[in-house]
Design brief:
Number of domains: 4
Number of helices: 16
Shape: elongated
CATH superfamily of the largest domain: Ribonuclease H-like superfamily/Ribonuclease H
Radius of gyration: 30 Å
Distance between the termini: 62 Å
Strand order of the largest sheet: 3-2-1-4-5
Largest sheet: 5 strands, mixed
Strand content: 15-25%
Length: 465
């Protein structure tokens, strides 16, 4: 790896979000054939004020950058130095994200092969827990003349590479780098796809084929890595191979967090019916059993989704995609637990049910078992099907904010129903005052799993009032 042209780079910035914050300093070390060939550094006028905490950390003040060139003014020279070279940086996606955004603002398209020294250190020294730059400086005895300054930190990266090659050998280092640089290539139908354009953020991605035919909808907490996984060279699934052959366009929708991605995926699958989403959601006949154990003589009533009383959700048992599937499930439960076919509503009339004639019913239909005792056994048999009661007193909003703090949204929920996502107080008021609950099986399952897994850790806004 050290035998090819590389750039070891570090940038200082006004904050952590490449979409909103700006670069204040750039430093790089150029190397080729295993030797450093040059250095370059410049302060950059970000056009915005540098926060006091950042000034204290880097020592770069507003006064220092006031007369510095803007990024647009240094873009041409910087691009000339970077073009065609492997870019090496610590926590490389951070530096690369800032570079790409700044180049884009300057009207310059930039992409590069990227090597992250955090990932490289983890791969080479997995026994160590910490791989931040301060830890690596202390662990490998590297001297840093100007910590948290761009050129000083870039010089540290060069010294670390030299130390690692001396410590573990050139071949081991080369194998580790080759492994990290091995990325899938875009399929033939996507010659212009740059994986770097896809954010490392939660969201939903959509694959389209010829004539904008929807092929697949998926979700992930890291869109880039998930999309790249579809196009890995070793297709383990026939579906992945077919998608790679058929895809012509990729779209994505960023979300603030996992819940937003889960909900949007479920809704888009129904809306678009993609060719390769195997479990297409058809819910025209969705139904459930409504039953109250305190009414032992009343059999379970099969109700459709349109008839479901959301206020009595804890009296519902099971969700089935058709009446036939529901009745078959109830018949299997009755047979497994020796339940009466009349008291379960599977037969009408009086006297011994058919199951009693076959000696499979305990006799509630002929007085051998009380209706209350039968209800207790039915309740036990139904326990695994009981729908989870809405754990809040009414309508709520679940707030999600991304890791950088730059994207936030509130998902409005009412008794397991999704009403919409708001990005402002105005949108929140509009959804809360106008949207009506519409039950959806997949949304219920998404919310039930998400709320159970989060154990109350989500930020909930009470909208019941």
């Amino acid at each position: 790896m050290l035998d090819q042209p590389i750039i070891l780079l570090d940038v200082e910035t006004t904050g952590a979000n490449p979409a909103y914050d700006r670069i204040t300093e750039i430093g790089l070390v150029e190397a080729d054939a295993g030797r450093p060939t040059g250095e370059w550094s410049t302060l950059v006028n970000p056009g915005v004020s540098i926060p006091p905490a950042i000034q204290a950390l880097t020592g770069i003040t507003n006064e220092m950058v006031a007369l510095a060139p803007t990024f647009a003014e240094v873009a041409e020279e910087l691009h000339r130095r970077l073009e065609g070279k492997l870019l090496v940086a610590h926590n490389a996606r951070f530096d690369y994200g800032f570079l790409r955004n700044e180049f884009r603002r300057a009207g310059v398209r930039y992409s590069a092969k990227l090597l992250c020294t955090v990932k490289l250190s983890r791969k080479l020294f997995p026994r160590h827990a910490h791989h931040n730059l301060d830890s690596l400086i202390a662990r490998h005895g590297v001297v840093c003349s100007a910590r948290h300054r761009a050129l000083g930190d870039a010089r540290v990266l060069w010294e670390l590479l030299r130390e690692w090659r001396a410590e573990i050998g050139a071949e081991t280092l080369r194998e580790a780098v080759t492994s990290l640089l091995r990325t899938p290539s875009a399929p033939p139908g996507l010659p212009d796809l740059s994986f770097d354009d896809i954010p490392e953020a939660p969201g939903v991605y959509l694959f389209y084929g010829e004539n904008d035919l929807p092929l697949y909808v998926g979700k992930s907490v890291n869109l880039r890595s998930r999309v790249m996984a579809h196009f890995a060279s070793d297709h383990r699934e026939t579906r992945e191979m077919r998608i790679a052959q058929q895809v012509r366009r990729v779209e994505w929708i960023e979300t603030a967090g996992e819940l937003g991605a889960l909900i949007r995926e479920a809704r888009l699958v129904k809306q678009l019916a993609p060719l390769h989403n195997r479990l297409l959601r058809r819910e025209a006949e969705l139904c459930s059993f409504h039953w109250r154990p305190e009414r032992p003589g009343a059999p379970p009533q099969l109700v459709s989704a349109r008839e479901i009383d959301f206020a009595q959700f804890d009296s519902l048992y099971g969700l089935f995609r058709s009446r036939r599937a529901a009745l078959e499930a109830l018949r299997e439960i009755a047979q497994a637990h020796g339940l009466c076919l009349i008291l379960t509503g599977l037969e009408k009339g009086r006297g011994p049910c058919f199951a009693h004639q076959l000696k499979r019913c305990h006799g509630a239909c002929v007085g051998k078992e009380s209706a209350a005792a039968h209800a207790v056994r039915l309740m036990r048999a139904f326990s695994g099907l009981r729908m989870q009661a809405w754990p809040f007193r009414g309508r709520i909003g679940v707030r999600e904010t991304d890791a950088s703090g730059g994207r936030s949204e509130v998902h409005v929920l009412d008794r397991w129903c999704y009403l919409g996502s708001a990005h402002s107080e105005e949108e929140l008021h509009e959804i809360n005052s106008g949207a009506k609950p519409v039950f959806d099986l997949d949304t219920y399952r998404v919310l039930a799993r998400f709320l159970k897994r989060s154990h109350g850790a989500v930020s909930v806004v009470d909208l019941a009032a």
